[in-house]
Each structure stands twice: as C-alpha cells, then as structure tokens.
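Last lecture ended with a question: if I hand you only a sequence, what can you say about the shape of the protein? Today we answer it with a concrete record. The protein is MoxR-like ATPase. Below, first the input exactly as provided, then the predicted structure, then a couple of comments.
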Amino acid sequence: MRNRQEPSVVTHPLVHRLIENIEKVVVGKKREIELSLIALLSGGHVLLEDVPGVGKTMMVRALAKSVGADYKRIQFTPDLLPSDVTGVSVFSQKTMEFHFRPGPVMSNIVLADEINRTSPKTQAALLEALEEGSVTTDGETRELQDPFMVMATQNPIEYGGTYPLPEAQLDRFLFKFKIGYPSKSEELEVLNRVEKRHPIEEVTPVLTLEDIIDMKKDVKKVFVNEKVKEYIINIVNATRQHHAVYLGGSPRASIALMKAGQAYAFMQDREFVVPDDIKYLAPYALQHRILLNSDAKLSDTTNERVIHEVIQQVHIPAGKESVR
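The predicted structure:
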C-alpha cells in the first residue's frame, strides 16, 4: 500500500502541466498542491491550518494564476461583516434604484485568509457559498461562477484572538491539511528564488477555465465500484463507532471521499477508483469531520490518530472485482 504521506505520480498531462507551473512558486509541497487540485476538480474546498509565513497564500495565488481564474482575497478580521463577504446593494442617486455590488466571494478562487479570526456570524456567511455555490442577499439568490473554490486559512486554535469554526462549517470543506515548514534545502531554494524577484510575478496561465470545467465533467465519469463505495461507507461508519469519538463523519463525508477519489483517479489517468485512493485521501477528508469525546481530549488523543486507527481496522477490498 502507498504511504499516505507520499504524493502520487500524476500522469494526466494537463494536471501534470498545472502542478509543474505551481511548483515554480511553491517549493517542496507537491502533495499539498495535488490535494488542492483534487478539491478544485471535484468541486470541493480546502482548509489550510498552519502558522503564518509558510506559503499558504502563495500556493493559492499560483493556482489561480495558472488557470487564469478570477481571484479574490478576503482578510478576515473581528470587525468584518457578512456583507463584506457576499456583497451589498447600494442605492444610486442617478437611477434611483438599488444596484448589487458583488462581494469578493463571487470569484472563481477565493482565499479566505485567517477565517477563524472573524466572528461566527461572518463565518456563516460562507456556508451557502461553500455548499450551494450561491449567495443570497436582500432575498435574491445569485449563482457563483464555475469553477468556484474557497481555500481558507486558519491559525492554530491555540493562538489568541481566534474563533473555532463550527462543525457545520468544517463539514463543508473537502480537505483539511497543513503546509508545514520547508526543509533546509527547500528553504534555501526559496531564498534563491525570491532574492531578486518573486516568482509569482512570472507565473502565467498554462490552462484555461474551460479546461478546468471540462476536466470536472470528466471526473464525474470516473467509475466507482460498489465494493469501493462499501469501503468508503465502512470507513466513515467506523468513525461513528470509535470509542474516542463523540460525533463521527456524516453522509456528507462519504460523498466527499467518493468525489475526491474520482478526482484522484482522474489525475492518474485512470477511469476507475481503487481502494488505495480512498485509503490515501481519508485522513485529509475525515480528520476535521469528527469530534472527540471528553475522555479522549483528556488523554491527548488527536483526530489524526483516530482516523489512522480507523483506516487500519477497516478491511480493504481486494481483487479485480473491487475496482471494475
């Protein structure tokens, strides 16, 4: 079985070209780039949790520029209002009518920076956009552009001035993962690249939004065998039965894991999902969707450890009948 920490060898030519372009800016983070693209191609969203300065913003910007996407950044602060995210209707003295002024969420790729520094009310303004792909303001529902993806960053919850995201909002994110510090050699490469000019300034599109839309359609055609679906359900159900878990993964978690598996198989130029795909993606898709009980918290048990135990316990379907 493939180690869940190792990135795969992406063989789809368009996706491979996209990854290479992003790596001109982001050093040594192929796995994180790969996971972000899985989210983009499956219609999901990403939550990046890490300390400031490790390259979260640069990765999002490089991805947006690489596909020629409309990109907006929302800096979440304690005084940010929901209308600052979704948009607001402004009265025009000339026409004597109200005109809608779109908020930054109405873009292709949105960076929700430090999302846990704003109030729960403003955090909730993203819920409809994350799940429905639309926003409702002044009683009118407006569809968002396709493709649409939110990449939210948050500081570790132990930092001062943060508001933990509610379970309902966490469940809307396909993946949660960390960027992490670079190695010494990678950090040296970063310094060399930015010494005279930042590489983000030289990134140009290698794909179009139409390419992304077409690939998203192809992702939905990737076959998922009943045995693989059962494997997904068994993993999610096992999170509900684990002795350390108060609230396990929901059916939305099963759907998310299946869609992520389809995108992952597509990126490897396969027409079907294999159990190994699900095993690799499960930690990133499930760790933020469970709540530990009080005993587990007191014993320093982590969400990551629980998901690892679940994956090890659930039987993996074997044989050709499990994939085709």
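Comments.
1. The first helix runs from residue 13 to 22.
2. The mean pLDDT is 88.
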